[in-house]
Structures are given as C-alpha cells and as structure tokens.
Design a protein that fits this description.
The complex is a heterodimer of chains A (about 300) and B (about 350). With about 300 residues, chain A is mostly helical. Chain A is about 70% helix and about 0% strand. Chain A has twelve helices and two strands. A two-stranded antiparallel sheet of chain A has the order 1-2. The radius of gyration of chain A is 19 Å and the shape is globular. The mean pLDDT of chain A is about 85. Chain B has one domain (about 50-330): ABC transporter involved in vitamin B12 uptake, BtuC, CATH 1.10.3470. Chain B has 13 helices and no strands. In chain B, α1 (about 5-30) crosses α2 (about 35-45) and α3 packs across α12 (about 285-310). Classes of the chains: A mainly alpha (about 300), B mainly alpha (about 350). At the A-B interface, α4, α10 and α12 of A face α6, α11 and α13 of B.
C-alpha cells in the first residue's frame, strides 16, 4: 500500500506539472497541443546535458530551455500567425520525435548498453517521513516532487487571487475586454505558453533524470497527452488538475506494480489502457464543462 | 488554372523545398554533406523499378490516413485517432483472413475481410462522433485517447488469441497466399490496395463537392450554427463523418495487412496517423491533393530509408524532414493568406469589380 502511494506521488509529479501548465495555457485561450513533444524535448535535453556535464541542475536548466524553445515556436505560429493549433501541435510532435532521436544518435551513435546517469536522489525529510503510510509517500521523494508542493499551491493562488491570474483568465474568456484594457492579448498568451514550456520541460526531465536515469525515444509514450486530458477532466481548474493527477498517478502506479508482480490475472494491457479509458469515460460522462470561451480561437484585432 | 490553386501549389512547393534545406542543415551536425545525402535520396528512389514502386506502396496507407483527417477537417472536426482506427482495421483484417483463409476461396476472404474491417473501424470511430453529437464531448481528446486504447487492445490480442503458433514473438502467423491482395505492377510490391486508395480519394472528392451531404459537411465546417439554422442537422454530420473517417483509416489497416505485411507484427507503422495529418495539411484537405501529398511523403520515406542505408543517416531523419516541412507548409499557409488578402484589397481599391 505504501509502495503504491510512493509510486503514485512520484508518477504524478510530471503529470501535475504538465496539467497545471495546460490549465494556464488553456485559460488564456490556447490549447498546447505540442505538449507531448515538449515533454520529449525536455527529457532529451535533460539527459544529454546531465550525461555530458555530470550536473543534474544543468540538465534541468537545459530541459527548461528546450521546453521554452519548443513552446515558443508553437506559440508564435499559433498566436501571431493565427494557424490551427491541432495542426501545428502535430507538426511539432513529429519534429520532436524525429529530432530527439536524430540528435541522440548523432551524439552517441548506437551504444551497446543503454547510457545512464544517476537520477535525482530521494531525500527523506526528517520526522515527516516517519509518519506511517503517508510519510514515505509524501516526504521521501526527490527534489522535483518537492518543488511541486510549492508550485501547485502558488499556481492555484495566482490564478484565482491575483490580477495576473485575472488577466490570464480574461485572455481566454473575453480577449476583447483585455485588449480594450490596454493589455496585449497575444503577448499574454505567448508568455503563458512559454511559462508552460518551463513546466513541461521540467516534467519531461522528470522522466529522464528524475527517476530512470536514461533516455529512450519512446519514454514519454503518451504521458503528455494524459496531462493534457487531466486539464480537461479537471474542468480547467488547477485544483481539478491536482485531483485528476492523483487519480492518474495512482492508475499508473497500479499498472507498474501489476507489471512487476509477474503473476497476472488481469492482462497487463488493461492497466496500460486504463488511464486512457478513464479519460474517455469521464469525458463522455460529464456534459457541462467550464470550457474557456475562446479556447482554440486565434485572437485577431478587427481593423 | 484557378489562381488560388496556383498560389497553393507555388507556396507549398516553396515550403517543401525550404523545409528540406533547413532539415538538411542538421545533416552537417553528423559531419556529412547534405547535398550528397539528398543526392542519394533522389538517385536511390530511381535506382530500380522495385524501389520506385515502394513509393506507391508507402503512399497507399498514407492516402487513407490523410483522407481520414482531411474529411472531418472539412467539417471543422479533428480526427487525430487515425492511428488507432488503422490498428482496429489491421486487427480485423488479420483475424478474418487467418480465420476464413482455409475455409473459403481467396477473393471471397478478401471481400469479407474488407467489409468487416470497414464496419468495425467505422463503428469504432463513429462512437466518437456520437459522443460529440449527444454529449458535446471533445472529439479531439476522444480520438487521441482512443488510439492508445486501440494500441493496448492490439497488443493484448497479439499476445493471446492472435499469437503465432510458435508462440515466440507477439505477431500473428503469416496469411495464406490466396488471401494476399494481388500485386498489380510486376517486379514491385504495388498491390491492389493502391487502386483502392485512389478510388477512395476520388470518392471522397465526389462526396464532398458533388453530393448534398458533402455540402452539408462543408457548411457545418464553415458555420455550424448557420448550418443548423438552415435545417442541417450537424449531429448527424458528426456521426457520419467520423464513421467514414474511421472506415478510411481502417481500410489502410486492411491494405497493409493483406497487401504488404501479410501478417500482423507488434508496433508496425506507428506513424501512419500523424503523417496523415501532415499530408492533409499539405493538400489543404483536398482529397485529390491528398494523393499527391502522399506520394511526396512516400518519396521522403523511401528515399530517407535508402539515405540511411547508404549515407549512415539515422532513420529518425525522416521524421525530422517531415516535421520541418510541415512547419514550413503551415507558415506558408499564413503567408499565402496574407498575399491573397493584399491582392484583394488592391483589387477593391482599384475599383475593379470583376
């Protein structure tokens, strides 16, 4: 049970970073459909830089740079050139898949055994980690997971209680009003998208240098899309994203535990498919959604 | 030729060339000569009849998956689940062919396999349209998620019911020769599926631009509310268009299994869906354009593969090329729209009311 919770919180970390980022972006009226590719770019950059410099923090910084770079390309084409977000996202995801694999090969060739780095170590917090069951789950994780404990409440507070949050929300609900108030809607959107690049880059880094300590081209495997889905299912609210992440983190932890326990009564694929089935069921089951009014619509000033 | 069509062709050709140039710069990172690499790509494609034919072999599933995105796109719907619909089709085709192969004459097996493939993949995708119509669900999210479910389903079946008799790998037994789609050009692997793909594209064009229902699809895409006001039921459009898109992507599964692979292997053709989106965009969602865009992608895939063998450039470069070309095509769409607007403004200002 404890092991399951530890894994759930761990696997939930990148999902929460990704889904919170998606909530912010979508609240400004932009869907970040390049999220899967951004995760992958983050994972790749973090691994490559950590491997060459032996410094995890430089690796993390590289992941942030790669994440912002990816979302900036996405943002400029969608927001300033007004192109279709689904289409641009697909292009970026294909490119990220090709680029990371290509550059990885260019740098390392085909190594005989997988290259590894030491991932961020787990740091038990004294006293707190001694609490039964919940202690190890919450307070015996790595620094990236701890950082989420600060980032998530902060993001909830900013979105709902500050004028910055109001600007973000209005950009998606009523961009014209934001424009009339003298705030550049496109700039708000682009800055939020780049901010999402920071978080998604870190989320990607979590997969490569957060616990596995290696990089493969398929390591994200749709988890970016899970984060994307959590944003929808959480009703575009950061609190909903936290709740959704717990559910999906738990689902993934169960899948991992079932796979490693060997003797399977229920086929492995049921657990692999579970998060996706869950998303479909929840999407269809809930009719009224708090969809941002201008989600997916490029903002153009009438002239 | 229509001026807008000409604009489209010119900007897209420019975008493709620019995209290839920019991605070529990455070859420099490998310490290799991009011009030489592209030379290998082009001469490789033309080196013999078999290789040249491979272009059309690779283009066949892409025409289907391109149409599977393009058709809903005309109704402003996003079907990004073509990959999953393709897997459902492939699983159906292989299961039916293996099951009926020893019981019936080959052509009959092929017909039954095709029919069941179309039905099952149409139902699979039609449910997405139904959820959109009845529950207002987001079809983008649903179609994306359904791909992962289809993948898990396929992997499960390959590990259990459909697994080869030897039980060694997650793949099926090979199909009987009688249930293969016939090769239509000697000394190549071009099979009847290519003709089916061409017919499908022409059929989609006719459906979109020459039928009442096609008009309703396009009207819904341009303005769903106005369409509803004028008596069109968009809900019906959602279900039908998704079912048709699913059947198209499923048909690609049939032609790949019965025409090329002659078995089902885990993890085959993982990029058909995503590349289909690129093709649809390059073709501006025009079904006839999809044929040409697919052939271009076929050249890149076949040539890219040969380049990999001869110049030591990894296969992942194919996705680099396709990704960068797609981005240039998208930016090209923006540039073209601006040029056309400017031209329109000039025309109006000049008082020419032609």
């Amino acid at each position: 049970m404890t092991g399951l919770l530890v894994a759930a919180i761990m696997m939930g970390t990148p999902l929460l970073l990704g889904s919170l980022a998606e909530v912010y972006v979508e609240r400004t009226g932009v869907m970040n459909t390049a999220i899967e590719g951004t995760f992958l770019m983050g994972a790749w950059a973090a691994f490559v830089v950590t491997y060459t410099t032996h410094n995890l923090w430089l690796g993390l910084a590289a992941a942030i740079v790669a994440g912002v770079f990816t979302t900036l390309i996405y943002g400029v084409i969608c927001i300033y050139l007004g192109q279709d977000q689904v289409v641009v996202g697909t292009a970026i995801n294909i490119l990220a898949m090709g680029l990371t694999a290509f550059l990885f090969r260019a740098q390392f060739g085909t190594p005989l055994s997988p290259l590894t780095v030491d991932p961020f170590p787990k740091i038990p917090i004294p006293v707190l980690s001694q609490i039964p069951v919940l202690g190890p789950a919450l307070f015996e994780q790595n620094l990236l997971t701890y950082s989420v404990y600060v980032i998530a409440p902060l993001m909830i507070w900013v979105l709902h209680r500050t004028s910055l949050g109001l600007t973000v929300r209005s950009a998606g609900e009523n961009p014209t009003a934001v424009d009339v108030a003298g705030i550049d809607v496109k700039r708000v959107r682009l800055l939020t998208v780049s901010f999402a690049g920071v978080l998604c880059g870190i989320a990607g880094a979590f997969y490569s240098i957060g616990f596995l300590g290696l990089f493969t081209e398929t390591m994200i495997g749709g988890r970016g899309w899970i984060a994307f889905a959590i944003c929808f299912l959480g009703n575009w609210s950061p609190r909903g994203a936290v709740l959704g992440t717990l559910v999906f983190g738990l689902a993934e932890a169960i899948a991992i535990q079932m796979q490693s326990s060997g003797a399977l009564i229920i086929p492995n694929e049921v657990f692999i498919g579970l998060p996706y089935v869950l998303t479909i069921v929840l999407t269809v089951a809930r009719k009224t959604f708090n969809v941002p009014e201008k989600l997916g619509v490029a903002y153009a000033i009438e002239s | 030729m229509n001026r807008r069509v000409l604009d489209l062709i010119v900007t897209n050709v420019l975008a493709v060339v620019l995209g290839l140039v920019v991605s070529g710069l990455l070859i420099l990172l490998l310490g290799k000569d991009p011009l030489h690499a592209y030379g290998t790509l082009i001469s490789g494609v033309f080196r013999d009849q078999y290789t040249f034919g491979e272009i059309f072999v690779k283009a066949t599933p892409l025409i289907f998956s391109g149409l599977a995105f393009a058709l809903p796109f005309k109704a402003k719907l996003f079907n990004i689940g073509a990959q999953g619909q393709f897997y459902i089709g492939a699983v159906t085709a292989v299961a039916v062919s293996l099951w009926l192969g020893p019981l019936m004459p080959g052509p009959l097996v092929l017909l039954v396999a095709l029919a069941l493939t179309l039905v099952l993949s149409a139902v699979w995708a039609g449910l997405i349209g139904l959820a959109k119509a009845k529950r207002g669900s987001n079809e983008f999210l649903l179609s994306m998620m359904s791909t992962f479910v289809a993948l898990a389903l396929m992997n499960y079946l390959l590990r259990t019911f459909l697994r080869e008799a030897k039980g060694e790998y997650p793949q099926t037994d090979p199909l009987l020769n009688a249930t293969w789609l016939p090769v239509i050009v000697p000394d190549t692997r071009i099979h009847l599926g290519f003709v089916l793909a061409l017919l499908a594209a022409i059929g989609c064009w006719f459906f979109l631009f020459r039928t009442k229902f096609g008009f309703r699809v396009r009207a819904t895409g341009q303005n769903a509310r106005a369409a509803r006001m004028s008596g069109i039921n968009p809900d019906r459009v959602y279900v039908l268009i998704f079912a048709v898109a699913g059947a198209l992507a499923g048909a690609a599964g049939f032609t790949e299994v019965n025409g090329v692979q002659h078995m089902l292997v885990q993890g085959f053709n993982p990029d058909v869906g995503a590349q289909g989106i690129g093709i649809a965009i390059l073709a501006n969602a025009n079904p006839i354009g999809v044929i040409f865009a697919s052939i271009l992608f076929g050249v890149l895939i076949v040539g890219g593969g040969i380049m990999g063998q001869l110049s030591g450039i990894p296969n992942s470069y194919i996705n680099v090329m396709i990704g960068i070309v797609m981005i240039f095509v998208i930016v090209g769409n923006y540039v073209r729209a601006r040029i056309e607007t400017r031209r329109e403004v000039r025309r109006v200002k000049a008082g020419d009311s032609k």
